[in-house]
From TrEMBL:
GO function terms (MF aspect): NADH dehydrogenase activity
InterPro entries tied to this protein: FAD/NAD-bd_sf, FAD/NAD-binding_dom, NDH-2
Species lineage: Bacteria, Pseudomonadati, Pseudomonadota, Gammaproteobacteria, Pseudomonadales
Native source organism of the sequence: Pseudomonas versuta
PANTHER family: NADH DEHYDROGENASE (PTHR43706), NADH DEHYDROGENASE-LIKE PROTEIN RV1812C (PTHR43706:SF45)
The keyword NAD appears for this protein: yes
Entry keyword set: FAD, Flavoprotein, NAD, Oxidoreductase
UniProt name for this protein: FAD-dependent oxidoreductase
Similarity section: Belongs to the NADH dehydrogenase family.
Length: 400
């Protein structure tokens, strides 16, 4: 009977795990293992672009790609993991509970926006965490044109000044002018607990962020937090009220709650601690990758972030190593010492940095050109061709 590798999740981590595992089996001529991906859709959702308009288009079907490399796809939503029985419970497309067995499990279920219990957030705030939520925000923005002119209509509050918050806020002036008119008096405000603009991004990059925000008219309310949201605006922790018909929540993500069903140590974001081969520490037959893995990228104390940049490489290693365990060959230790960021700053351009200290290398139009290449070419799946897909899934590909 064939050994069963079950991968839960079809995002960057899950897709690359599937490609890499089948690649190693093919290299060794091994035909006694089956790789299965369980996910709600056979598509890669390009989450790093959800702040853009037309979010419904930011998907890349991967059914033909998976078929090309011999991966079985099962459409369904995983709900439970039984490590003793080595099984996963899921709900299929008809709403019927089903169970899948496995010999090796790879958890690649990603992350979700960490929604707080803040009053009114669930009812009145928007987010760009998933395609459906990004489309909801887009439809709301378009509806503003039908409302009477008011300060609240023309104001957007973005809660959170991290990566997503900054990209969303700096995109807003151009999007709103298309909807409301070129000469409308707009106000986009980032509410953040930090003492400095872009503080979470580092000192050097924060200078570019501040410059871009000044040029675009994006304001910051520092050392502040939103304590309540309603249909007409927000209340801050100092009691001040900001009238705004649009509130976007971007205050961080947490790993999929399925990590809680696997015994093991987790970090403060819910990610499972893994060893250098991405096996969950304390579990012989369970690997974690992408946003659910707390993995060391180097020997300097740095760990992978919840980004596609890290998930792609994590997936290549997880797939190789779970297959290596079945084959009885040496695994490849995960290492990703080079870290870069490319932060989109709307009409100002973008800022590209290298290193964990985020040394600025490109800004404005040069940065924007690179950001566009990353977003539209580099992070998309390979073509549905077996040889091309396997070549791209090699964990030893040099990291540019």
């Amino acid at each position: 009977m064939k050994q069963q590798i079950l991968i839960i999740g079809a995002g960057f981590g899950g897709m690359w795990t599937a490609l890499s595992a089948t690649r190693l089996f093919d290299i060794h001529g091994h035909h006694d293992a089956e790789v299965t991906v369980l996910a709600p859709q056979a598509e890669l959702r390009v989450r790093p672009r959800f702040y853009e308009p037309d979010a419904h288009r930011l998907v890349a079907p991967i059914d033909e790609l998976l078929e090309a490399v011999g991966v079985k796809f099962i459409q369904g939503a995983a709900e439970s993991i039984d490590i003793r029985q080595k099984s996963v419970g899921y709900i299929d497309t008809s709403g019927t509970p089903q169970v899948l067995g496995y010999d090796k499990l790879v958890l690649a279920t990603g992350s979700r926006l960490a929604m707080p219990n803040t009053q009114g957030v669930a009812e009145y705030a928007f987010d760009v965490d998933q395609i459906e939520q990004a489309v909801r925000l887009e439809n709301h923005l378009k509806s503003l044109a039908g409302l009477p002119e008011s300060k609240g209509r023309n104001t957007v509050v973005v809660a959170g000044g991290g990566f997503t918050g900054i990209e969303t806020a700096t995109e807003m002036p151009a999007r709103l002018r298309v909807i409301l008119g070129e000469h409308v008096d707009l106000e986009v405000i980032i509410v953040d607990r930090s003492e400095k603009v872009g503080a979470s991004m580092g000192d050097e990059i924060s200078q570019s962020i501040a410059e871009a925000c000044d040029e675009l008219g994006v304001k910051w309310r520092l050392k502040s937090s939103v304590v309540a949201v309603d249909e007409n605006g927000v209340t801050l922790d100092d009691g001040q009220r900001i009238e705004a018909k649009t509130v976007v929540w971007t205050t961080g993500v947490r790993a999929s709650s399925l990590t809680e069903q696997i015994p093991g140590e987790r970090d403060y974001l819910g990610r499972l601690h893994v060893d250098s081969h991405l096996k969950v520490i304390g579990q012989q037959d369970i690997f974690a990758t992408g946003d659910v893995a707390y993995a060391a990228t180097d020997d300097l104390g740095n760990h992978a972030l919840m980004t596609c940049q890290h998930a792609i490489v994590l997936g290549r290693h997880a797939g190789n190593n779970v297959a290596a365990q079945i084959l009885g060959v040496d695994p490849i230790s995960y290492s990703q010492p080079k870290y870069v960021t490319c932060l989109d700053l709307g009409g100002w351009g973008a800022v590209y940095t290298e290193g964990w200290d985020r040394q600025v290398k490109l800004t404005r139009h040069e940065g924007k050109s690179l950001k566009k290449q990353i977003n539209t070419v580099w992070i998309y799946p390979p073509i549905a061709n077996r040889d091309a897909a396997w070549a791209a899934a090699d964990p030893l590909i040099p990291i540019a």
